[in-house]
């Protein structure tokens, strides 16, 4: 029985990795061991589990069905025999972990924290993809992700790690020249920035208290890059609405001032998530927990200044 469970564990790892070589790296073994385990299961079931070529391996329909049935069973067995408080061996903390996060939040909060984690665990291979395009956790084989706002996906295990507030901001010089808006309707007469949503190609709307919204026009400064938007606002070209991880330091320094603070919207949640796909390797749990702590610490530092 123990040999059969080990075969399934190797098979599931190969199914998650999409490569026998990477599966071997995760398991601390050789690609030949993975190949032999898969071949033994194929002979047992009389079905191919993977389509193989010189460039890649791709799981078959039967392999997908077997993986779906095997994951919860293996998870139950591993949970049954796990020892509370046991520290994972170094070999369990080695291997690749794929991570996705929004660009600005990723650069500010995740990359410094992950650099420290990698230094503590030399066996970790961190594959960090910073993008404002929502990643498909299954197709892109994401292990851990970060997302701001709504997260409604039954395939995900998610933990709230913090909140992001939003501020309407401008330079003091722009306010002196054009005046500060007193009502939401006054924004229509002011130059504004427009940030494009890379997922839809449309302009992000600005959110305010009581569910009110304002959609910037396209006649002042349009960009798909948050850093470029900040640059335009700091140059005094326009008014913009920024998340606090961009706005807070600039407001404290006096480079920007807050407008219509009484209409600030409720904060958005920041989620750290991973896909529900059976047993979670120790290295993924380690990175997941580390990112949750890093996002929380980053938010706390912004609030406390």
From TrEMBL:
Q: What InterPro entries has UniProt attached to this entry?
A: LysR-type_TF_proteobact-type, LysR_HTH_N, LysR_subst-bd, WH-like_DNA-bd_sf, WH_DNA-bd_sf
Q: Which UniProt keywords apply?
A: DNA-binding, Transcription, Transcription regulation
Please indicate which superkingdom the organism of origin belongs to: Bacteria
PROSITE patterns per record: HTH_LYSR
Is Transcription regulation tagged as a keyword? yes
Domain (HTH lysR-type): give its ranges: 1-60
Q: What family, per the record?
A: Belongs to the LysR transcriptional regulatory family.
> What protein am I looking at?
LysR family transcriptional regulator
Tell me what organism the protein belongs to.
Azohydromonas lata
